[in-house]
Amino acid sequence: METLLAVVGVLAFTSCVTVALVVRAARGVRRRVLLARERLGLAARARTYGPAGELARLRRELERSVSGARSALAAARAVDAPVGDVPSLLSRLELVARSVDGELRMLDAQPDRSRVGAALAEPRSRALAVVDACANLVDGLLVAAGHRADELAVLQAQCAVEAVALRSARPMDPGVTRA
């Protein structure tokens, strides 16, 4: 009887865990589908004219710049380049970008397009400031990654010296022994 209860308990536990994993996976897939749908809609609206198109273009540029800075940081870390305070600055920029993106979304929801055009100046300037700050961070990371150019020159010279030494080495006569 105890064995039967243990088996039923294990089956109940595994079925609960399986259901939880399936629900979690479904939520993840749903989130990715919604994000892809939003990106596609944004790309389509970015090709239009007027305030709606400008809003979409600003939102895409904002997302690209933050994503690019995040990628540049990851690449800099991968090659052990100095990153300084970039991680914390990028986190703060991501927060500001989310806030500006929220403003742009609210403007996009405004049914009166004449009001959108008038209210777009402030969020546009903030979005462009975030884009510029991200570009500055990427430029700084790029320059910092090139800090090893002098090490490369030294390594290149050492390789040239070794290549000359190897070319000048002559094979020994098999009958001659070294002393």
Number of strands: 0
Q: How large is the share of residues in beta strands?
A: under 5%
Helix content: over 70%
Mean pLDDT: 86
Main beta-sheet annotation: none
Globular, elongated, flat, extended or rod-shaped: what is the shape?
flat
String of helices and strands: HHHHHH
Low-confidence stretches: none
The gyration radius over C-alpha positions equals 29 Å
Structural class comes to mainly alpha
> In DSSP terms, counting alpha (H) and pi (I) runs of 4 or more, how many helices?
6
Separation, N- and C-terminal Cα atoms: 85 Å
Written account of the structure:
The protein is mainly alpha-helical and 179 residues long. It has a domain at 48-164. The chain has 6 helices and no strands. The protein is flat. The mean pLDDT is 86.
Keywords:
6 helices, 0% strand, 179 residues, single chain, mainly alpha
List the SSEs and their pairings:
Elements: H1 2-46, H2 50-78, H3 86-109, H4 113-119, H5 121-145, H6 149-168
